[in-house]
């Protein structure tokens, strides 16, 4: 039984080798939100990013302990090593203390399932890249 506020994970997560996102930007005004984010894990429905406080670009976000104001924002992000831009929507955020924040990005509306499955195959697992 799923408790209120919890969702069932519909797709399995893939642990990744270190994959960096150059920047995350708003699709509304193209303003950059963060830079140098790390993708912690991925599934065919979304990505989990680690964003350090110092890498948040707007001073209003850097000084905040809560990034919930970003939930629902349509964003795009650049993965430089793969020469790839991915668009999606911020599904949730979580404050991690000194580590920074988790940003969960859902990209199911923006990309067909076949493309998302291919992306999962292309993202490197730990030990695949030296």
Can you give a write-up of this model?
It is built from two helices and six strands; from the N terminus they run βββαβββα. Mean pLDDT is 88; it is low at 1-6. It has helices at 59-62, 113-122; strands at 14-26, 32-42, 46-51, 74-79, 84-95, 101-106. Strand 2 and strand 3 (46-51) form a beta hairpin.
SSE pattern: EEEHEEEH
SS elements, strand count: 6
Estimated share of beta-strand residues: 35-45%
Number of helices: 2
What's the helical proportion of residues?
10-25%
For the termini, the CA-CA separation is 42 Å
Question: Radius of gyration in whole Å, from Cα?
Answer: 14 Å
Question: If you average the pLDDT, what whole number results?
Answer: 88
Mass-distribution shape? globular
Major sheet details: 6 strands, antiparallel, barrel
Low-confidence sequence ranges: 1-6
What's the layout of helices and strands?
Blueprint: E1 14-26, E2 32-42, E3 46-51, H1 59-62, E4 74-79, E5 84-95, E6 101-106, H2 113-122
Annotation keywords:
130 residues, mainly beta, six-stranded antiparallel barrel, 2 helices, 6 strands, 11% helix, 42% strand, disordered N terminus
């Amino acid at each position: 039984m799923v408790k209120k506020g919890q969702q069932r994970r519909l797709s399995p997560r893939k642990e990744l080798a270190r994959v960096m996102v150059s920047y995350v930007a708003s699709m509304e005004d193209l303003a950059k939100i963060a830079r140098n984010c790390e993708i912690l894990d991925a599934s065919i429905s979304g990505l989990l990013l680690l964003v350090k406080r110092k890498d948040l670009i707007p001073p209003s976000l850097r000084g905040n302990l809560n990034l919930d104001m970003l939930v629902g924002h349509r964003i795009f992000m650049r993965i430089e090593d793969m020469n790839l831009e991915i668009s999606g929507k911020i599904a949730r955020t979580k404050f991690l203390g000194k580590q920074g924040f988790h940003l969960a990005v859902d990209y199911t509306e923006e990309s067909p399932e076949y493309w998302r499955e291919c992306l999962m195959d292309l993202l490197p697992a730990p030990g695949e890249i030296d």
